[in-house]
Every structure is written in structure tokens, then in C-alpha cells.
Amino acid sequence: MTPKPSNLSLRPGNTSVNKVDMQHKLGIYLEDLQWSEFVIDGHHIVSMVVFVTPELARQWLRRNHSEGAKKNRKLSIPKTRQWLKLMREGMWDVSHQNTVVFDADGDLLDCQHRLSAIEMFGQGMWFRVEYGWPRASFASIDGGAKRSADQLMPGKYAQLLASGARVVVAVTGQVERSQRKDMVTAKGDTKQTLAWAAQWPELDWHKERVFRVYTSVRISPSLHLAVLAQAERTEHRHMIDAWLDALENGIGLEADDPRLHLRNRWMKSYQTLNQGSREVSYSMIVKAWNMYVQGRPMKTLKVSWNEIPLKVIGFTPASAVRSADEDEAK
Q: In Å, how far are 139, 288, 289, 297, 328 from 303, measured between CA atoms?
């Protein structure tokens, strides 16, 4: 039996890795491996030495690209072939860089190209495997060049969350003018975008509904999501569900209902609105929302340049940054 080293703790933590769950997700057994556990900044990491067979590589890759898995970089065939060439020519060396990395949910963070080469090569190789690293840490490692913010966020709506975060911090004044691409869009690297999204958990609450509205009437989902994230921090938050219902199906709306005007405007002119001025498009959504919550009738939906960008009624800049205590209470 392969001897196991003593567990290593670099810093005490409050929780530990669920090793049974980890073994189930990865299809490996610690009793067969050399392994250790350590804690860095509260993150419990299990590090092990694994002989990765083509079958195991295939299993991890399929899990990585399955429905519901967290998004990773698009697999590069040229890069995979580079690794495959080294293996075929006997140039593969055990290296500290040959580390397969998983997050605490068992989703692959790093080494997918080497794993793909192993699968194509048809022979196993030794790797170090680490489980439990925070997904966001790879934004810092890659410096935003290899992985974008949406690739480090969970779920199928990751790109929408990232783009919505860039909008909401721009329109709420959380970024300086130099950090703005335009009046309603911020510029930020991967790590910064992840931080913005973390400050606005409300973006996650309506992402699916907003995307359904987009598929129905083509309203820009990132702009729309940013408006609703702000609305969640106002006294009108209870009106969001009825707003989304009406935009999605259009049932029972009166001729002067702002939701009907917004819906019709986008269905008729979505190409112009989505390809034109984002400031105008954003303000148009805000104007319809503001009149809706005020119960004001609308004859036509127009936005003048001196109104841009419109402010979400009831939202104050002081509520732009949520405190840690407020997040805990939620």
C-alpha cells in the first residue's frame, strides 16, 4: 500500500473538504494515493499525486463540458496538439506545471488541454491534482488574458452577469470617468469585474427571467438586468415580478401601459436599439420602469439627450455598495 504523508495545515480553518464528495466527483480514492491537505486563507485544499489514464482524463473533461458545469476557456485544438506532440516524441516531463486544478464543487479550473492530449495519446501520465481552490483566484493568475470574468462565474448566464455588472457600476457612479467605456458601461479587468458582480448579488436574482424577456422581445439583457438590480434596492422591488411577467408575455396590458410601449418598441426596433447608443437604450428601459412604478400612463416612449442617462427612481448612490452585514442578513 502506498504510504500517506501526514496532513499539512498552513493555516487553521473552520471547515474541511468533504472528501467523500470529492472522491465521488473525481472518481478517485485517497487510500490509493499520496495526498495531503492544507489550508490557505480559509480555503481547504487537497493535493494528491494521480496517474491520469485516458479514461480518467475523458471523465474529467466530460464533466467540465457537461450541461450545468461552470464555464471554462474554449478548448484550443492547436494547443492540445502541441502537448500531444511532446508526448508522442517522449519529451513529456513531470513538472510543477502539470497540475490539474478543481474548485470546491469539483469543476475543472486548469489543465484541460493537457488532459485532452492524454485522451488523444491513449497513455496515462503522472499529474499533481489539487481540489478546493477558489474559482476567482484564477482571474489573478491569468491576468485576464486567458480567462474572462464570465468564464470564472458559475452557470449558463455567466456572460450576462459579467456584462450586467459592468453596466450597474457605471450608472451608479461606482467607477471613475476614466474607467468607463461609455456613460453606461465600465471597463475592468477580470478580477475587477468579478468584484463588481460580488457587490451586486441582485444581478443573479433575475438573470433567467431577463434572458427569457430577451428571447421574447429582444430587450438588451445586460442593460435590463442592471436596471432591475438597482430596483431591488428601492421601495418598488415588489413590482419587479409583474414587470417581468408583462414584458415576457404581454397579456392584459392597456394601451397606455409603459411596459407595453417598451415591449413594442424593442420588438419593432431591436436591431437599431441593440446596435445603437447604449445610453439611449438603457435610459429607455429606465424611463419605462419609472413611469410603471409611478402608475403614470405613457403615450409614446421617447428619450431626449438631456435625460441621458436616466436614474432609477428611488435609488440613491449611498445604496450602491452593499455592506457585509447586509449581505449576511440576506
A: 38, 10, 13, 16, 39
Q: Which residues are paired to 48 by β-bridges? A: 35, 129
Q: For the chain, which residues make up each domain, given as ranges?
A: 19-135, 144-329
pLDDT at 264 > cutoff 50: yes
How far is the C-alpha of 132 from the C-alpha of 40, rounded, in Å? 11
Compute the distance between CA of residue 299 and CA of residue 293 in angstroms, rounded to an integer. Answer: 16
Q: Residue 321: is its pLDDT beyond 70?
A: no
Q: Is 137 helix (H, G, I), strand (E, B) or coil?
A: helix
CA triple 118-156-99, angle to 5 deg: 30
According to DSSP, the residues that pair with 43 across neighbouring strands are: 40
Q: Name, in order, each residue with C-beta under 8 angstroms of 327's C-beta and a sequence gap of 6 or more.
A: 201
pLDDT in tens, 117-156: 999 999 988 888 999 888 766 654 444 345 555 555 556 7
| Strand 125-131 with 180-182, pairing | unpaired
Distances from the Cα of 158 to the Cαs of 84, 172, 300, 303, 326, in angstroms?
A: 31, 21, 34, 30, 24
Please report, for the chain, how many H helices and E strands are present, in that order.
Answer: 14, 7
**For the chain, how far is it from start to end, CA to CA, in angstroms?**
49
d(CA 193, CA 152): 10
Residues in the chain: 330
